[in-house]
Write a structure and sequence with these properties.
Layout (H helix, E strand, L loop, with lengths): L8 H10 L4 E7 L6 H15 L5 E7 L6 H6 L7 E7 L6 H15 L3 E4 L9 H13 L4 E7 L6 H15 L1 E2 L8 E4 H8 L13 H11 L4 E8 L12 H17 L1 H4 L6 E2 L2 E2 L14 H22 L2 H9 L12 H17 L4 H23 L4 H17 L1 H8 L9
Parallel strand pairs: 1-2, 1-4, 2-3, 5-8, 6-9, 8-10
Antiparallel strand pairs: 4-7, 5-7
Helix pairs in contact: 2-5, 4-7, 6-9, 6-15, 8-9, 9-14, 11-14, 13-14, 13-16
């Protein structure tokens, strides 16, 4: 069933009564009763402290939580001049549909700025609200992306896939393209609302990379803002991958396919301004199971080896196969090999129109192997030193773009049966 709006009638009536707002802060939520009230309370403090003269709405877009998320949010007290709305959105389940409801409310109210924050945040401070809104209020930026201090093994999808491809393809060094905590100008919100993506798979976890890529391609003014440490419900990547990997990577590859004419001639990349003061906060470390990561890779090699051989360029597959004999203690995955293999998979994805879900599932053991290789390379490094490794990795991707373009032009192979 298609929905012309993500807003329920009750929500629309409330928004009509509110009439207008300068700031809308949206919080997509699903079963986050242990954290969402803290996020709402902190957002309220930030609005009160830094934007007391602005009319604001805090809007929780809930996906039909079965815990006490909505009740917890209703109980939070905010200043009388700050409106609060908790709504169950209409449409396909996923973060994107929650954002659609928030964006619709923002446009209707004529807000100058719309902010979105994740509902599982444990480290949000009132200063986050200041740092996200100020670049649009004072500097006339149109899209504000978070710049976090993260533990070296947090954000592995971003560090090993999304940052490399976004920077290489579109030419801007947006460090956290799927960060989750963004700010948007009124003009950008209107543009997003007019796009025909809200009833597609993008409206699930793939929405963040779509927001970032679209803003880059359409030429909106982008900056990054320092938010310090991001503490949320992080887990060892070998223990919890979930649907996020499938949806993010699929959306990334679909956007690659759609925007080839834009990215094919881009060479190198440009830095994106980073605003805000350094918070000085340090992220907490957590353990990563090398044994699990390497075992997943070896199982994948046994199970998918013949299919990988059909997807991955011959010399790349030879190198990959040798990695099957490595132990967890001395496991390595050279960056240039990872880069070429990821490009091989992107080209395969473009050529095969069916069974794409199966293709991304087959990619998962390779991703685990890359994390294992990164852990080996950086195990004795500080977070700052590991960050330099990530930057060098991105440079390898940029310098190998000719390989991607050459493979992209080749005739497609037969699809997975």
């Amino acid at each position: 069933m298609k929905f012309s709006t993500a807003l329920r009638q009750y929500s629309r009536r409330r928004i009509e009564k509110i009439k207008n707002a300068d700031i809308v802060v949206g919080i997509p939520c699903y079963n986050n009763d242990s954290t969402v009230s803290y996020v709402v309370k902190t957002v309220g403090k930030g609005l009160s402290a830094y934007f007391p003269d602005s009319k604001a709405l805090i809007m929780v877009g809930d996906g039909g939580s079965t815990d006490d998320s909505r009740e917890q949010t209703l109980a939070v007290q905010v200043e009388p001049w700050i409106e609060k709305l908790i709504t169950i959105y209409r449409g396909i389940p996923g973060k994107g549909t929650a954002l659609r409801a928030i964006f619709e409310a923002s446009e209707y109210l004529g807000a100058r700025v719309c902010v979105v924050c994740d509902s599982d945040l444990r480290s949000i401070t009132p200063e986050w609200i200041k740092n996200l809104i100020t670049p649009i209020y004072d500097e006339e930026y149109q899209f504000v992306v978070p710049y976090y201090e993260r533990y070296k093994y947090d954000g592995t999808i971003t560090n090993n896939i999304v940052y490399n491809l976004t920077r290489t393809l579109y030419g801007l060094r947006v460090r956290q393209p799927i960060g989750g905590d963004f700010a948007f100008s009124a003009k950008l919100i209107k543009f997003y609302n007019d796009q025909d993506v809200w009833e597609t798979d993008v409206a699930k976890f793939g929405i963040d990379i779509w927001l970032t890529t679209t803003a880059i391609i359409q030429g909106f003014r982008i900056c990054q803002t320092r938010l310090g440490t991001k503490v949320h419900d992080v887990k060892d990547p070998s223990e919890s991958l979930g649907p996020m990997f499938q949806q993010v990577v699929t959306t990334l590859f679909v956007l690659m396919e759609q925007n080839y004419d834009y990215w094919k001639d881009i060479k190198g990349s440009s830095p994106v301004p980073i605003l805000g003061e350094d918070t000085g906060t340090k992220p907490e470390a957590f353990d990563v199971s090398m044994d699990n990561l390497v075992e997943y890779f070896k199982t994948g090699l046994n199970h998918f080896g013949a299919l990988w051989e059909n997807i991955i360029e011959k010399d790349n597959f030879k190198e990959l196969k040798k990695m099957g004999s490595l132990s967890a203690e001395n496991f390595i995955f050279p960056t240039d090999l990872w880069c070429r293999i990821l490009y091989d998979i992107a080209v395969t994805f473009r050529n095969w129109k069916r069974n794409r879900v199966k293709l991304i599932n087959m990619m998962t053991p390779l991703y685990f192997a890359r994390i294992a290789g990164f852990v080996t390379e950086t195990k004795d490094m500080t977070n700052g030193e590991a960050e330099k490794v990530i930057e060098k990795q991105a440079e390898v991707f940029e310098n190998s773009k000719d390989y991607l373009l050459q493979r992209w032009s080749e005739k497609g192979k037969e699809e997975i049966s």
